[in-house]
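Bug #77: duplicate submission created two jobs. Keeping one. Sequence:
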Amino acid sequence: MKTTIWGLLGVGACVFAHAQTVDWQKVDDTLGRKPAVTDDVHRYGFARSDLTVNLDGVTIKPALALGGWVAFKPMPGGVMAMGDLVLLEQEINPVMQKMVSGGLEITAVHNHLLRASPATFYVHIAGHGDAVRIATALRDALAESKTPLSVPASSSPPPAIDLETARLDQILGGKGQVNGGVYQVSVARRDVVSDAGMAMSPSAPLGLATGINFQPTGGGKAAITGDFVLSSDEVNPVLTTLRANGIEVTALHSHMLTEQPRLFFMHFWANDDATKLARGLRAALDKTASAQH
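Kept job's structure:
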């Protein structure tokens, strides 16, 4: 039987005492940026700020649908890394070749959006071992694309969010945050997701919470996208509910290989009254084992 990198993790919780200490400064230096830190997870953003992507007349902000990322979580033997990189079609194979030769695993390649120009694709990755080695492999792979490898200094204040965000929070049952002119709400699942017996938590920075993004488009309207994290029995109830509320389902697929319970990721798109869309999203969330209020 083939042993994946994840199979190496099934050694029991007692091994945590022997986990290697991660030199996070070296990881930061290798990747050329600082992470967002949540508990023990360090998440690095790789937004495609170099791209101008249009969809149904909306110029997509990087935080809406172009925000690649990689998260590192300490594990026995180093770290577990997982992430989602945003690439153009012609970048996929050169980046993939470098990642594979650098010891990273590819866990999915697919679209999240429809009709976007230029079309964007999403390559999901995984890795286990020394954090600096993984960071180096990731940097070398991204150098095969035009993904910005340095973070430009911001000279202007972030754009205001022209939406009733408190009302959106109330409807969705979660507290959102502003990121690059986009209002982002994350809703965790009630069940615990594990891989090789290890709890995958916190869920949001590891990409295992439903993510909902609102980009204001004027007059109380917003373009929305993101993904629902679903068990198999939730897929069609959520799909039916989204479509009944004028929200287009644009992709349905897996992001990982060996998680338990098995999860499916449903991406969506609409551009309409933000409050109306939030109600439709909440109706869909109510079909899931989500931890919203």
